[in-house]
Amino acid sequence: MTSTPRPIILTGDRTTGPLHLGHYAGSLRARVALQHEARQFLLLADTQAMTDNVGRHQKVTGNVLEVALDYLAVGIDPALSTIVVQSQVPELAELFQYLLNLVTVARLERNPTIKEEMRLRGFERDIPAGFLTYPVSQAADITAFKATHVPVGDDQLPMIEQTNELVRRFNHTVGQPVLVECEAVLSQVARLPGVDGRAKMSKSLGNAITLGATPDEITRAVNAMYTDPNHLRVNDPGQVEGNVVFAFLDAFEPDTAKVAELKAHYRRGGLGDTALKRMLDERLQALIAPIRERRAEFARDRAEVLGILRRGTMRAREAAAQTLSEVKGALGLRYFEG
């Protein structure tokens, strides 16, 4: 009887800053669970982060270790998950080069994720070529490890669609199934808003709570959270939709019945923002305290963390090299073998 093969997971983060609660709600918790049931690669995407950080490369490289510390602090086990530094796997860059020939500039410009990212960065027509082509780089990352599942937010679905387009086109071009299509795995919390009510939590926007935040930083962030500007008195009915405090309670309070009752109470009036924020502050303090403590413990031996990254990256290179060999064989690029 043939056993079902374990899924291969590829996920990761750009190394432009330490991770925050938006990352934790969106995918970090899922990654901790998935490592027990799948072969998981976690990519520290420093090469990709360089595409829109020209002249700020120290910001990118300096955060490689910081993001790795966040991974370890939330429970990623390097014995179960392979943590990979993207720039140290040259096979990814070579595969990226081959895949670039299978997509047009017009198709890249139509990618909804790229269009939105260009708008946010104000690139207009001065977009760096590396940034425009990063969906192809991401496709190379996914296909190099033959990932079958990729945890993403809903804003990243166009990237998965484009990856599978490239897989199909490559396989059709060479006439054999070398690369593997992948499936998006959506997180339960698609996107956590910033504390200021903006649509996305971001360290660069100053509206994030990092995983290493101190107790005072957590309290200040919660007290600053956007609620309902029309909820002026405790007895006034309040609006739950668009209320950041409730978005955080939905993401981090495991007692869903309690959250439902709080929402009902707020809507009918009689529940003040101060009391609501106090409850959320207690929940976040309890959540982040053990993460912060584990992070500090790992940070005391940074040499060992670098060792974890080195060993994981070498394992990843072996997997990527195997895929690249198959790709080059299918393209007839192995001139000196046999």
UniProtKB/TrEMBL annotation:
**GO molecular function term, any single one:** tryptophan-tRNA ligase activity
Q: What is its EC number?
A: 6.1.1.2
Q: Name one GO biological process term.
A: tryptophanyl-tRNA aminoacylation
- Catalysed reactions, semicolon-separated: tRNA(Trp) + L-tryptophan + ATP = L-tryptophyl-tRNA(Trp) + AMP + diphosphate + H(+)
Keyword list (alphabetical) reads: Aminoacyl-tRNA synthetase, ATP-binding, Ligase, Nucleotide-binding, Protein biosynthesis
Matching entries from CDD domains are given as:
TrpRS_core
List, alphabetically, the GO terms of the cellular component aspect. cytosol
Transmembrane annotation, as ranges = none
Q: Name the Pfam families for this protein.
A: tRNA-synt_1b (PF00579)
Similarity field? Belongs to the class-I aminoacyl-tRNA synthetase family.
Q: What's the protein called, per UniProt?
A: Tryptophan--tRNA ligase
Q: Which organism is it from?
A: Pandoraea thiooxydans
